[in-house]
Design a protein that fits this description.
Length: 538
């Protein structure tokens, strides 16, 4: 028979054995999940590879060209819409920074005249900040483009003035592209060669190694090319490519952020900031724009957004048709619009950069004074909102550059854009670092609370176990007492029985002894009688 302690020990050993078995089952389950995931990814990669290897025919002739729409081996960044379009020369892909609905609401992006309106919409259609990524081991890659003239009223009858580079750069070429190989920016500047005087062109990228390389094509600042084809050498193909799940930066503003003053997208301050921080960029700035809600609505088309910067107001101040107070009210509306869909996004307000400080033929003292008032009113707006929004920030961007960084009255040189980018990136990095530390502290607090709760539960369990042990000890003691009493009673009974038995034995012995004495007397009397009879006969 087992004691209580022995039973408790066996129970604990049984629980331990059971836990080991459960852990073993858990690990087995994990292995099964990993195996299934691996097989799924493997199968998916095979599907992607098969899709990537599609070959199409042009005019009945088989060529090693690839579909650009819905192709998992070609990834686009910086565009809220990737639309297939039927161009007179060839179908292609239109990469839009703004959704078509936003482009159609172009009044806020346009000036008074239809000519100015055409230019503004064209700039909204431009591709600053957009990239295209693909991977292949083909020794040469041919990329073909056509110009998007959808914003031009009569593209068949463009005048010499409209095509004059000094009048409207957007209508004269396909822009300057840059590209990366395996994440490294090439020094090459590539421009599509115009084909037969048409609004179309192509250029060739050459591989510098035998194995497959990942290419990232960086689209121009102000041009709006439609990519129509990507052609590889025979027997080569596109390969699967992995999406970059980077944090997302959006930039709202005018020509300063769009990139006027720089030649390629890679020289603009928004691109440089995104590169330094490792972010994906949505450049939503439009050259010539004033602060407006339609342009800001594009923010709502971006599903996930970590940071948005707003540098707006120069055109507002210089048109002298909007007071600083009105500018502040409109900026408040822009802020509220963003918060409707991005409640946790970091919003960073940027006061107007330092422009020319001395009046000239284009800039009056009234313009300069308006810029000062705009900066003051933006700071007032920030002071009104900062106590209710921990994700709203203002950086002193008006101190980041000076007149030496300007290429004209307001636009930045390449060096000026680089200087601004370095300082903005530093500020954003501090903002995001503090935010991460706060999240980490919250996680630590949560973990500590969980640990405290677990400790409390453990203490309660320990108390319960102690109470159980105490109860068991009490029960054991009671059982021991009961057993002792039972033993005592048994011993008492035994003793009584033993006494009784002894008494019975004694009585029996006494009876036996008495019987034995009586028999002896009778035997002696019989002998005496016999002897007397013998004597008489003699």
């Amino acid at each position: 028979m087992w004691s209580i302690n022995e039973i408790t020990l066996v129970s604990k050993n049984h629980r331990k054995k059971l836990m080991l078995q459960l852990l073993s089952l858990k690990n087995t389950f994990k292995l099964l999940v990993l195996l299934v995931t691996y097989l799924s990814l493997f199968s998916f990669s095979q599907v992607r590879a098969n899709t990537c290897s599609a070959v199409i025919k042009v005019n009945g002739v088989s060529t090693n060209t690839y579909p650009l729409s819905n192709n998992p081996c070609i990834l686009y960044s910086g565009a809220v819409e990737v639309d297939g379009t039927n161009h007179p020369q060839s179908p292609g892909i239109m990469l839009r920074r703004f959704a078509k609905d936003t482009i159609d609401k172009n009044n806020s992006l346009a000036g008074a005249s239809s000519r100015f309106q055409s230019q503004r919409v064209g700039k909204a259609l431009s591709t600053s900040g957009i990239t295209m990524r693909f991977k292949t081991n083909s020794p040469t890659i041919v990329l073909r483009f056509v110009k998007d003239l959808s914003h031009v009223a009569d593209p068949e009858n463009l005048t010499a003035t409209e095509l004059d580079p000094s009048k409207n750069r957007i209508d004269r070429d396909l822009g300057e592209f840059r590209f990366k190989r395996d994440g490294v920016l090439s020094d090459e500047i590539v421009e599509p060669n115009v084909l037969n005087g048409e609004f179309a062109g192509e250029f060739v990228l050459n591989s510098d190694r035998l194995e497959a390389q990942e290419y990232e094509l960086i689209f121009p600042i102000l041009a709006n090319p439609i990519i129509t084809e990507i052609e590889l050498e025979p027997n080569y193909q596109l390969e699967p490519i992995i999406e970059n799940n980077k944090p997302v930066l959006a930039v709202l503003g005018d020509s300063i952020s769009h990139g006027i003053g720089q030649d390629q997208t890679v020289q603009t301050w928004p691109w440089l900031v995104a590169e330094q921080l490792g972010y994906q960029l949505h450049n939503l700035a439009v050259s010539g724009s004033k602060t407006n809600l339609i342009q800001a609505e594009a923010i709502t088309d971006i599903a996930h957004l970590d940071v948005v910067t707003i540098l707006w107001g120069y055109n507002d101040a210089h048109k002298i048709d909007r007071s600083a107070t009105e500018y502040k009210e409109l900026m408040s509306e822009v802020y509220s619009l963003i918060r409707q869909t991005h409640s946790e996004t970091k919003i960073v307000l940027m006061p107007l950069l330092t422009a020319v400080l001395t009046p000239n033929e284009k800039v009056t003292q009234e313009h300069i004074d308006a810029e000062v008032e705009y900066r003051e009113q933006l700071r007032v707006l920030f002071s009104e909102l900062e106590n209710t929004d921990e994700n709203l920030f203002l950086i002193d961007s008006d101190t980041f550059t000076d007149e030496s960084h300007l290429t004209d009255n307001v636009h930045l040189t390449v060096d000026g854009a680089s200087t601004l980018a370095q300082k903005v990136a530093k500020e954003l990095d501090m903002i995001m670092t503090v935010a991460e530390e706060v999240v980490t502290e919250e996680e630590v607090v949560t973990e500590e609370e969980v640990v405290t709760e677990e400790e409390a539960v453990t203490e309660e369990e320990a108390v319960t176990e102690e109470e159980v042990v105490t109860e068991e000890e009490v029960v054991t003691e009671e059982e021991a007492v009961t057993e002792e009493e039972a033993v005592t009673e048994e011993e008492a009974v035994t003793e009584e029985e033993a006494v009784t038995e002894e008494e019975v034995v004694t009585e029996e012995e006494v009876v036996t002894e008495e019987d034995s004495s009586g028999g002896a007397v009778l035997y002696g009397l019989l002998l005496l009688v016999v002897c007397l009879r013998r004597n008489k006969s003699i």
